[in-house]
């Protein structure tokens, strides 16, 4: 679908008196062209015409006449020009030293043809005596053989034919391979495709009066052909055929003949192939004739033509796709393909026609070289620049167009578009202001308004250009070029913005200018920062569009670099397209990128081969080698062409979601729904896009869709998740959605929508939406199938078969066995029979079962049905109404299915049944070790002894003695009970409660005080000692316990300090080892880095903005992987925090252990405060001072150590290697090779390393009276 556009045309030798050229050669690097005539070789600069040097060719020594050149090539290795003449001379010219021609060899019998290999290592020569010579580039003969072998070649095929000429092929080793079949009329021209697949030649068809280009495989088999169209009434002769460097273009040099006399006119034609069809893309007419032509050996799209009139013309083409933008609905997104005098046009908005076919073929009187489409609103109009220097104008809205509806009343097909109609052929006229310009020498073409077009021509100098503004005068059948702007540089590309009416002019140095046709003003293009816009490299394709709020220039180079306003966005872009909301790029990594135009062009993300978001819809894979043909600007359609030529239409998700958001915001419900359905977008987007608005307009939604099957599809696809936060989160990440309250979020989304639909159906009439109502009932999180069946049953007696149809649909949605159980649960046996008849159940089974149920008492029948359906709670309600004779069955149901709480609610408190069930519940709770709750149930059952035992097990001593008094315990019984309960309490470290029980119920004051002393409740113990006048217990119990507590705290604090210092020292060692390992890694990276790794890193970083992802991260905002059982998690956590020396997380474990020590010691402040007071009170002042001093010293040590232990902030890294400004490519490569990972900061730092423990300063634990004198100072 691509055409060739002429980027640059430079003609030199204008007016110079030089004889007719025979051969052309071009240097690869300096742009110097060498032209050989029969008398001399001239070296000149191809872009300026400046003469570099020249040298005369010696005459033929035998005849004394001129030596006709056969081959002229620039041999790069020797920095010399090699000339081979027909008389057999091999001559070298060192043009840089202005030397004479050096004779390096000679073939005695003369030379008839010469060909150099593409790598210039070998040269093949055919001689006058029909010999074939293979030589090196230094002209040493490798092989010599006969030109016409008489033996069979290695790859020859057996063929039988009558006469004709042949094509012979040899291998690179000069081994004869094959001879083609006999071909009548085969001409002398021959060209082997550089890719090696085909050999092209010319066949004269005498009987048809035409000529064909025929192709052969290297084994001699015929491989297609095409006929050269007639471009003149004269006879045509193909003098030369030649492939370009990348084998994409075949050049034909054709001369006009009048019988046997050569005429002055010549043609250069450029042909391309796609889908096995050959297209004539360019046809150039030379009135002075063409002497010779050749392709540039380096630039595949550069062609040099030497005319017989003394000109050397350089042409540079590039590929382009001619299409309309498709920005408005009336724009049909036309794509035009040039094929000689035909223009193949297809409206991509409406249809996709695979090439070489097209929706319409527009015929012109002569070959077409360029096409342009009209500006809006006539964007479907087209103008074509012909090879004769005329214009063909096509209008799409002409009155003579084909009618939209076929005239045949039997024909139901309709024309869905109006093809453009030829309006006229226009001559080109130049006014005096435009000098020295010929109509056939124009290039570039923009149709900028209804009356005006812009074209470019070469200026007065070789490096100058003229920007021409022409006026279309249809009535006079001409275009007048009245205005021009002369520029000192070559204009490389033009682009037009339909919205702003501005033209971007790109010069060959990458500079971008702005031209306003209305005012004819030409100024440098300046961005919003006041800087001139230019491309770092010249771009062969440019376009204009708005990105953000600024009009920007887009450019794509031949080397796949894509720029936006001079900023490189991608270094691997193969094609681009402009959508109303996006920029679309295809890349060498076979992806299609969609970049939003709402972003500032300076903030556009740089391309990466990897997706940056788990649900990134801006990037999608495409077939290898795909290119963008056109993008329908206001739609979601993108047309791609594959390398083999076929077309494919895709609808990128980014374009779809953007379009859907506009449709939903504009309340275009039906179009949005059909788009979602057509492209398989998740239906939940209709609701999740704006939940509040959707629920407010449910009635409108139903009435607009107005088709039950569509409503059913929507309801069936409902899921709980918000798709704008999961699968389409990339399209909604920067948008602020309406806030949803926490209470609203608890309500099921599916239930909320189904309830809204059911309410709307009630308002609109249920009978119109029976199937949708049934679907809404069935789709709720807890399906309301009973209501659905009741609706089906209510249809009986209304319309014929309506109930049966509704039931059939419900059975389509719900399994019939499930529906049978639901019907049975309605206790409506007629409904059950109705459903059962649709199932595979045996009537011999379910009919007796139903009959048996009919005979039962009503409540017992309901109980039996519910129990059968395993609705045990509901069955319990029915069995409780069946009387005392079924109570044991009720007890069995409660025990079997743990329905104790429900059962107690069904009976009156205090009744025998209630007490029986309460005991049953208490026994159940006892088995579950819920003794306190079991005691409560025993109380309800008035089982006081069982309640007492349950409360005793629960250590609820208050309830225990309540139950004891309820049973009228004697004093001795209370004493025994109190001793037992106090023992239980002390075993559970509840010394204060034990003391209370012993005082209140056992009246044992000494044991009560001992309990308080054992629990270190010093003040309470002292209070009870004085209360009961037992001062003797101070010496016997209190003081010894104080001494033990002092010793315990002293030993514990000492051990904690020792452990803390050991862990802290080890932590310093671990961190020092890590720093050394990191330094060794960087050092080894600098010394061991080799060239192969450098190439690897260079390739890895060639994609702009590429990054290395973490290999350890499995985090996701939408998905959480299960972590196994609690025991497994604890085991993994203990393994992670291992203090074993050398373990991978030893630093984590050490810091965690230090934090636990600090927290444990800091938590002793209140206990130590009370202990210090008691010690001082009983004259242990020195011990109190020592304890307080040691504890204070330990806390101060912790406080000073915290900054040394917790050294990391949230922006620091602890891994051996991380990405950042201080990391190098060498270090990254070495880290990856050694197994290190590059992680994000959030993944590298554990919270235990970030958050240090804090000492509680609110607890005042110190005693002034226990402060030593040195501490006071």
Task: Sum this structure up briefly.
With 1273 residues, the protein is α+β, with helices and mostly antiparallel strands. The protein is built from 37 helices and 53 strands.
Secondary structure blueprint with pairings:
Elements (H helix, E strand, L loop, with lengths): L2 E10 L10 E4 L5 E5 L3 E6 L5 E6 L12 E7 L4 E6 L3 E5 L8 E5 L4 E6 L5 E6 L3 E6 L4 E6 L21 E3 L5 E4 L6 E7 L6 E7 L4 E7 L5 E6 L7 E9 L6 E9 L2 E14 L2 E10 L3 E6 L6 E6 L4 E9 L1 E2 L10 E6 L2 E6 L12 E4 L4 E6 L8 E5 L4 E5 L25 E10 L12 E5 L4 E7 L6 E9 L4 E10 L3 E6 L6 E5 L4 E5 L4 E4 L16 E7 L2 E7 L5 E3 L2 E4 L2 E6 L3 E6 L3 E6 L22 E3 L5 E5 L6 E4 L5 E4 L2 H13 L3 H11 L5 H4 L2 H6 L1 H8 L2 H9 L12 H4 L9 H5 L2 H16 L5 H10 L5 H10 L7 H12 L2 H10 L3 H8 L6 H12 L3 H11 L3 H8 L7 H11 L2 H6 L6 H16 L3 H10 L3 H10 L3 H10 L4 H17 L3 H12 L2 H10 L3 H10 ...
Parallel strand pairs: 34-38
Antiparallel strand pairs: 1-26, 2-3, 3-4, 4-5, 6-7, 7-8, 8-9, 10-11, 11-12, 12-13, 14-15, 16-17, 17-18, 18-19, 20-21, 21-22, 22-23, 24-25, 25-26, 27-28, 28-29, 29-30, 31-32, 32-33, 33-34, 35-36, 36-37, 37-38, 39-40, 40-41, 41-42, 43-44, 44-45, 45-46, 47-48, 48-49, 49-50, 51-52, 52-53
